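Subject: Sanity check before I submit

Could someone independently write out the structure tokens for this chain? I want to compare against mine line by line before I put it in a report. The sequence has 524 residues.
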Amino acid sequence: MFTTNASRGLPRHRSRSLAERYRRWISRALVAALVVSLLWLVVAFHLRGQWMFALLFLVLGASLAVVFGRRELMSHRYVFPALAGMGVFVIFPLLYTVGISFSNYSSSNLLSEERVRAQFLERTYQAEGSAFDFRLYREGERVWLYLEAQGEETSIGASRLISEPLVDSESGGSLAVHPAQSPPAGEVLGMREVIAERERLQRLVLTTPEGVELRMAGLRHFAPILPRYTENPDGSLTDLRDGTRLTPDREHGFFVDGEGERLTPGWPVAVGLDNYARVLLDPDVRGPFLAIFVWTFVFAGLTVLFTLAVGFVLASLLQWEQLRGKAVYRTLLILPYAVPAFISILIFKGMFNQSYGEINLILEGLFGIRPNWFTDPAMARTMLLIVNTWLGYPYMLLLCMGLLQSVPRDLYEASAVDGGGPLTNMFRITLPLIIKPLTPLLIAAFAFNFNNFVLITLLTGGSPDILGASTPAGTTDLLVSYTYRIAFQDAGQDFGLAAAIATLIFLLVMGLSLLNLRLSRVEV
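---
Independent answer below. Compare away.
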């Protein structure tokens, strides 16, 4: 005998099957809606010419439909969000960066060729010798524009024009004008009224019967605005002002005139390995790149070494049994870790000020010296290491304190029996026991400082600059800040070159990470 549901009078197993069916249809409907949304994004990006984004969402939508549409792939549904996130936020940006590195993508080459051509065709110029003096006439509520050519001849045809009433064009826009034999009846407005109406007149476009547009060119003048370029059947453009012919240079992505001068904006084109060749073969780029590359490894390595040394020594002192007030010292030593890094960096920037900073005032009072912390390359790098050691030692302190707790006390007692001292205990017992579990954390700290963008940007900004470099490069720049300056702070914003450097950085870091993991015998 079935147990029935009190509210519906249905058998319990039947009620469960209906609920399961509803859940299944709801989940399928949600998946279908998500797939349709992704396909809409594919179409939208394709229409805008962004084929890489269209391909990304096409792959994402297809994989979503396959994984959630086939029952035998049910176990993969749980890992699909993680894989999709890795694909969207890790793999795709990496591939997109690599793709940009093979192009001339920059601030001068952003738009597609069609949009560049349309932008040239939309350009206009003010025709010379065809200006019109104008006066405003008012009769009751209505106001007219009366225009009279400055010369006897005009390229428009009529030398006198009158507009429709301005009351029909309160906020500017287009207004038709017609040939006139004489000024309209009414009161002529003075200069004060013209100035009061100036903003509306500046937005006004007067269209003659021939289709010529007239715009305000002064407090008393309107002039025809003519299209500057016209398109030829072979794809070139002709400058209507002087007849100059602009031909598309699809190898470099620019329109060029007869003298070979490039006109901006341009469009992105594939340049092959040119950006990588600039990094490796161009002396003006290769020299700063190699100097910054070496300094990046030195900075990351010395930071890890100094922070580890300071953290290990302080952790060892805090383990000293005869030391009183350990809790107070531990709290004070960890405080730099609790303060946001950007606040500490800005405070240090003021303290290292060459003219008014506290550090130079103390050094001058004690030793009579005032180091040039921000203008001398060696002193600037020293300052970075000092500040980064201060910011990083609490992390190493916490790690060493935890690892020192795991060292058996019996080993120290046996060492004392054999006559071992503090140095013997440190190099024969403590360091060998903690260095193996500490190695992966040291590698992570090295990777973090390898890309320590915040410290460089806030403290030195990469300065002092490297003289003779064709790209913005500084003696304190790391590779990550150097790439950022090329992409966003350089006048040309050379994204292609920055992407090539970023790709080289990725390959170097990946190789060094694999090497470090193998040397530290960490299974990948």
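---
OP: Matches mine. For the report I'm noting this point. Residues 113-121+229-263 form one domain.
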